[in-house]
Amino acid sequence: MTDPFLDAALQEARIGLDEGGIPIGSVLVHDGEIIGRGHNRRVQNASAILHGEMDALENAGRLPAWRYREAVIYTTLSPCSMCTGAILLYGIPKVVVGENTTFMGSEELLRSNGIEVVDVNDQRCIDLMTRFIASNPDLWDEDIGV
Questions:
Q1: Taking the CA atoms of the chain, what radius of gyration do you get in angstroms?
Q2: What's the whole-number mean pLDDT along residues 117-127?
Q3: 19-55 residue pLDDT tens
Q4: Catalytic option among 53, 70, 108, 142
Q5: What is the pLDDT of residue 34?
Q6: This model's pTM is above 0.90
Q7: Is 126 exposed, middle or buried (0-12, 13-18, 19+ CB in 10 A)?
Q8: What is the three-state SS of the chain?
Q9: 46-93: per-residue pLDDT in tens?
Q10: 3-state DSSP assignment of residue 124
Q11: Closest CA to 27 of 15, 35, 16
């Protein structure tokens, strides 16, 4: 059985890929409802910061602090340092990670700050990123700052 929120994040990742971008998606969930969704749009928007998690937070709009502290963020890929910083800044208590096989982000930093990190290692997420990285190594390196 799949998780509908991870499915929504994966749908966002596929939208990003269809747009010519990097296939990483994310959704912000509060009280069983998606309140923000997004995907990596660095290529599409010529942006330095629009990773999937950042886009989902941006699309959630301005929220009261308590709402973030009750939310869960789902992401198809382990969060990088920048996205981890945003998660910590807003006090999001739980992160569900689609996969960390192709990229291990700052999960230990999240855990060391009391954030619950759930690694799902969803094969669909792994396959999507594996294919993308093999086909676009330069773009992938740029995205992760290599």
A1: 14
A2: 97
A3: 999 999 999 999 999 999 999 999 999 999 999 999 9
A4: 53
A5: 98
A6: yes
A7: middle
A8: CCCHHHHHHHHHHHHHHHCCCCCCEEEEEECCEEEEEEECCHHHHCCCCCCHHHHHHHHHCCCCHHHHCCEEEEECCCCCHHHHHHHHHHCCCEEEECCCCCCCCCHHHHHHCCCEEEECCCHHHHHHHHHHHHHCHHHHHHHCCC
A9: 999 999 999 999 999 999 999 999 999 999 999 999 999 999 999 999
A10: helix
A11: 35
| 144, pLDDT greater than 90 | no
Which helix (H) or strand (E) element contains residue 10? helix 4-18
Cα–Cα–Cα angle for 122, 123, 126, rounded to 5 degrees: 95
Residue 53 catalytic?
A: yes
CA dist., res. 12 & res. 31, Å (int): 20
Band (pLDDT 50/70/90 cuts) for residue 13 is: very high
Q: Within the chain, what is the greatest distance between any pair of CA atoms?
A: 41
**Residue 146 clears pLDDT 90, i.e. is over it:** no
Tokens of 25: 């998606």
